Predict the structure.
Amino acid sequence: MTHETAAASIGHAPLVIEPVASARAKSRFIMFPWQVYAGNPAWVPPLLSERKRTFDPAVNPFFKHAEVQLFVARRGSQDAGTIAAIVNHAYTSVQHEDVGFFGFFEVRRDAEAAAALLAAAEDWLRARGLRTVRGPINFATDNESGLLLDAFDQPPILMTAYNPPYYREYIEGAGYSKAMDWYAYMLDRAHLGGGATDALPPKLLRTVEIARRRSGATFRKVRMNEFAAELGRVRTIYNRAWERNYSFVPMDDDEIDYMAAGLKSIIDPDLVFIAEVHGEPVGVSISLPDYNQVLQHINGRLLPFGWLRVLRERSHIDTARVFAMGIVPEYRQRGIDAVFYFETFKEGVRKGYQRAELSLIVENNLPMRRVIEGLGAWINKTYRIYEKRLP
């Protein structure tokens, strides 16, 4: 069976939209993507254990400041689609916008089900005083966000979204329009003479040397033996460096700890850098090995044998993702970002990585885009956040 036929409509049984109100229904919600993407070689199944943690209010601190309602579309005994309606009170407080969100939108080839799911989320948000809805955003923009618009034949890089091409038709057909695009840039050693650092553009190398002298910053790798203290430094940088970013919401200690717990086991310490001035952190760059190259083969399950495959194949990961980079406002425009990219590239070459995805970069972040394009990277994927004003 191809992924085209697997995602096809399940017939003409009456359509019902139901709110998820039981553990069994939530389990069906979580498992539904396996039906949509059956036979699709590009899809990477999420880890079921992590997905269950994501939806557990007792575990995920996002629920401390958010309301979430899950909906399932059904035709007879079969599921046709899913969606989450999200009120992020931290967002409305920080951004002062009457905006709600939808996420975890998955649907078979069923235009009626897609429209009904989006309408259910809109009605739920409208009833809570929201006047605009944006998405797809899986809870917050530091999670999987945006609708993939191209490169459907390529597997997603770690912690990025993937969807069939027909989702765009369904979302735009429901009255949604572009709010913002995000880009995933690709940098490949093969395009740089095999990857030697002296093959980087001379202008970038000069910028790096000037930045080292003039920024007053020193650059070091993360210290895993003092992980808790490093988390505090990262949080300080994050909440200052990203505060003017599109859809930014500051993270508290619990949210930083939750994210770090999910990343600690996959971090490559040689690819995480902190910039300091007089011992104070002013910038951070976090790159992660693309564990999706392993997860693609274990079907979402670590037990009983998934762990063995992870251990066996992680040494073959040849791609990294530049996951997060931020510099506090008073130290921007000093070339610190160029030094981060240079150090990451140098370490990546040393460790045998062949390519890196730099993502996600919001389209209006022109200074960062200029630096990235100066490296020789190109836009490989585009993700779109949609919005709709609720009457």
